[in-house]
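Hey all, sorry for the wall of text incoming. These are the two entities for the joint prediction.
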Amino acid sequence: MPAVSKGDGMRGLAVFISDIRNCKSKEAEIKRINKELANIRSKFKGDKALDGYSKKKYVCKLLFIFLLGHDIDFGHMEAVNLLSSNKYTEKQIGYLFISVLVNSNSDLIRLINNAIKNDLSSRNPTFMNLALHCIANVGSREMAEAFAADVPRILVAGDTMDSVKQSAALCLLRLNRTSPDLVPMGEWTARVVHLLNDQHLGVVTAATSLITTLAQKNPDDFKTSVSLAVARLSRIVTSASTDLQDYTYYFVAAPWLSVKLLRLLQCYPPPEDAAIRGRLTECLETILNKAQEPPKSKKVQHSNAKNAVLFEAISLIIHHDSEPTLLVRACNQLGQFLQHRETNLRYLALESMCTLASSEFSHEAVKTHIDTVINALKTERDVSVRQRAVDLLYAMCDRSNAKQIVAEMLSYLETADYSIREEIVLKVAILAEKYAVDYTWYVDTILNLIRIAGDYVSEEVWYRVIQIVINRDDVQGYAAKTVFEALQAPACHENLVKVGGYILGEFGNLIAGDPRSSPLVQFNLLHSKFHLCSVPTRALLLSAYIKFINLFPEVKGTIQEVLRSDSQLRNADVELQQRAVEYLRLSCIASTDILATVLEEMPPFPERESSILAKLKRKKGPGTVPDIEENRKERNANVNGGTNHTTTTPNAKTSPASFVGDLLAPAPPPTNRPRPVSSSSFLQTPLTPLPSQACAIPLAASAGTFYQVAAAASPDLLGLGSPSPLSSTPPALPPTAASLLIDVFSENSPGAAAAAAAAAAPIAVPAAPVADDNFSSITPESLHVADSILADVQEPTDKFVCKNNGVLYENQLLQIGLKCEYRQSLGRMYVFFGNKTSTQFLSFATSVVCQEPLASQLNVHPKPVDPTVDGGAQLQQIINIECVSDFVEAAVLNIQFRYGGILQNIAVKLPITLNKFFQPTEMISQDFFQRWKQLSAPQQEVQNIFKAKHSMDTEVTKAKIIGFGVALLDGVDPNPSNFVGAGVIHTKTTQVGCLLRLEPNTQAQMYRLTLRTSRDTVSQRLCDLLSDQF
Amino acid sequence: MIGGLFIYNHKGEVLISRVYRDDIGRNAVDAFRVNVIHARQQVRSPVNNIARTSFFHVKRSNIWLAAVTKQNVNAAMVFEFLYKMCDVMTAYFGKISEENIKNNFVLIYELLDEILDFGYPQNSETGALKTFITQQGIKSQHHTKEEQSQITSQVTGQIGWRREGIKYRRNELFLDVLESVNLLMSPQGQVLSAHVSGRVVMKSYLSGMPECKFGMNDKIIIDKQGKGGTTTTDEAGKSDLGGSSGKQAIAIDDCTFHQCVRLSKFDTERSISFIPPDGEYELMRYRTTKDIILPFRVIPLVREVGRTKLEVKVVIKSNFKPSLLAQKIEVRIPTPLNTSGVQVICMKGKAKYKASENAIVWKIKRMAGMKESQISAEIELLPTNDKKKWARPPISMNFEVPFAPSGLKVRYLKVFEPKLNYSDHDVIKWVRYIGRSGIYETRC
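and here's what came out:
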């Protein structure tokens, strides 16, 4: 930069700045600035043109005022004028002002671009540099558009000066970062790579940055840079410190360039070519060797530069992860840094070691430093370094040292900083679970964790404990004993009370034999904590109490007394009140057997990914948690009790949805659990410890997730899916255990009945997805539909036109449920015969009768079934269906069985209708009308005008049309209230295209249905079927 | 309650720091400096909550006074105290400036010990304080035991604001009605908001323990007396009837009194009776919003001639008796932020463009009632590249008039001193009305 001459000193500016600095108050400063602004305005306004010097001075003042935080809305023109000056200082100030102040949408941008263009094409390297810097500083899209072609040209032109090349490379880097789409990749890219061979190290440094960025985007285009970079690197590394003159920084040869080259190499896998590879290994070894040499200078800059190169080299080694010797050497080198005086070095060493720990070659080497790391955790003063130490301990943990590490982390937790406590808690919880050899240790650890840092133990952690305790028979007794002991502490954390309440409620009987932990003692212990807890915990404790009533009938009186107290029965919190009322009634009315069934011990949870891990991942973001989860999985499979570790979908690992599913884990709706089909089993849900709202909300949020879980469930689930017991219409129900319980609730008061229905609602939700899309789409509706089925079993086929599941038939003895799937011309029907009595059905037999002409149009093959159906059990029959051609009649299912010696005969029409073989067809408006016109023959169209039987709800109608099987086409009909659908009916012999249009008239409560198909019989049949639906 | 009190200079250096409660640590001092005085964005709220600690501040010239508390105190109380504190300091050493505070810091600490106790405000009556906190050393004062015990009995007694045994050769009373009138007016002359906040300030030099009674043309009082007929205050009613018959009684929206006023009597009889402190004090404060006499009317005319020129004409009309004279009139006409030159012509007074304040300031020394005067200005503008329109801030005005814009009139001020031998007639009473402008703005 040319020196500023004395005459250019700009005294006015200096005076102004010193005035500002001398201002006593903000007000005085603002006054001074206002005055100066007015002065500049009058100067700029003045008629006589200002000379370059004054212009520069005033622009400088404006710049200064702007930098003080005031708005500047004039002076741009003057600044642009300065750009065309021939004096360096004036040009410089002009560019400075523009880089700082001009926003991209200014209309001056054209003038500016012009000036820049002039400077770029000038031969003066200083001016070119100024222009390039301005482009890079502004970096707007407009700039990129204007100069994206020029800058690369300057960069690779043979006659460009080195300093300009340097600027051009950096300018291009900036443009590439701000608007990568505008920078064309062209033939220049190949030539950029050769800049790595440039004589001038400054150019090489700038070019390396550029190439690194470009190579990250298009690695293939810059593959050639690897060999050049290695060559360059080896030349630098092997050079004596005096060789590189200006680029030697405190005896380190070109540290910045080395770091950048090493970064560039990290964009690529280890070089294939053995020679290059050898040379690179040599370089890396040299760098590692140099780290061992005594420092050439005591200055901190020397060691900083040296270590920067070293750390970058180590990250390259880790990145390549192929040279065991290098990895081990790197690890040893880092080990030395662990005890270095410099905090930064310790931090970096721990951080790099974390990544090293995940490499198979160096994992063992990392483990040798465990004592140092633990020591760092204890004695380190800097919290961020301690945090890294925790990370490293987590990363280096395996079966051999898990106990030690977990113990250390626990002891550190007592003094840990608040900011990292929660993370440590999660890590301890994960490690304890992952490497648990015996589960007593695990339980001890987690209880300790809750004791030490209860506030930081998130829900997931204690959910997980309970999941594990429930799934492992061998620890249940120990867990009960331990929590019992832990609860005896005078002040214990609420989370501990939660765990305690749950575990004692489930397994309190295991320790009840000991007089020191007799049922009453257990209860009193829990209840002594009750009043100190929050509402959710109290709710959980109430559930624990009712479980106690089942486990220990001797404390029933005491517990009922507690439930009966006003503080429960009239609690202001509706959840607590409801539980108290329900539990009290349940305990009073239900017999021991029913209680035992309802309050049965929780079945094991399905094994799934630890929710804690999911939480930790979310907390840290993907990638930061080392990959040891992968190892963990295989270990988990053989170590942790051989439960098959199923993650139903690959994305379930990280997606929040799966987390929501996990959340539910301790409050398990019975859907995903294989258990005998007793109607009472789903009544367990409201009794589970979490409040019903808590389980309903995630359910609604994650219907999708639930589907996965449900899909894996056993088929007898479908019996549960049949909506009859859910519909909460007790009079219609036979006196099974389920209805009895519902009756219990409804007896209380209308309010309680509503509550019972509300409690049943969350169950309906999980049941719905099991059934079918049709069902799951609108859950309240599904209940409603179920209602109507019960009311109207006589003509079942109509009900099944638009849906595939439901109850086909029901009387005192038998309930027939259906679930069907259709695909093109084939279908499969699952028929469920539920024995509603307590006695066995004998010689149970079914047959399907197809009259002529149906017999030739439809093939129906029922699979054989067992001749007996036990009391309360369910029998499934599969019927395969094939549609040969279009048909009208319905097949009849004949059922015969003996009940109490009397032969029962039941005949039901099977709801197999023509529309079941629809395949929906999506088409755009134009296509639709074209086909509509093609089907204009009079017999092809059938129209029916009829009165609405149900309320004309658009959503319901839509659902029905979709259920009918056709695709609902939006935006085809010009009138948005009309419905238009299209589909193809597949039969074995032919395919029949079908278009339909439904025009509701809400005033007249009428519909007009028009159908056009290529076959008249089909049109007529479909029209009849569909007309009855609305 | 107030946990501590700090005084800072403009740089944020602590001049006075007095902590009353343990919950306020030393770091509170820095917290206020960092977050308020040196805040990146100018802090406009007088109450700031930093790390669960509340800071209430007022600024006097370049001095910041901040009261700090961790409790949920009555903010109005704290500000009342801070204002009182300012008054007390002004009474002791004049203007509040860094220099004065540095010179009097022993005195200030002494005052702070006296007027705040464990964060609870105590007696802050200047007159009373001056009897026992003096600027001279103890030695120079010849306090006898008797005098000291007298001070004690006074300060702890029922009438803490007046000592016994005061004697004057001439019994005099000075009564000032000081009002500030606030206005916001639309360009068309419609009143958008207007109110008067007034104070009655007294200076009394009376012997003994006189009982005073103050009467004014408050609507409620007059109504009450009208209904009550001629019972107790018949003499006063008659004597003033001539004066008040033609004039309206005014409606006072709310008022507050000096502690010497007997509130029980005010509540029952609406009469203001009190034993006055000796010397200067503020008897009452009040606020009115109805039937305000606006002393000046400002008529603005702004015309934008193209993008680079603005023509402004402002007419002011005085709206009071021609015999009265307004003083210290100042009209402030804001100019756009891109003003590059101004030419002003005015008939009366002096006008100048002040670039540092972005305004044309027009000053007139004196102006009689029912007159008008005008100014016209041509403002040259520099075209700017942003399309923001000028916000046109309102034209503001300052003045002083010798009457009360609220219409308040003092009807009587009677002095009874049964023990000493002077009567109401012997007291020389002076009444003065001063109306000043508060925020007196007209949109243009």
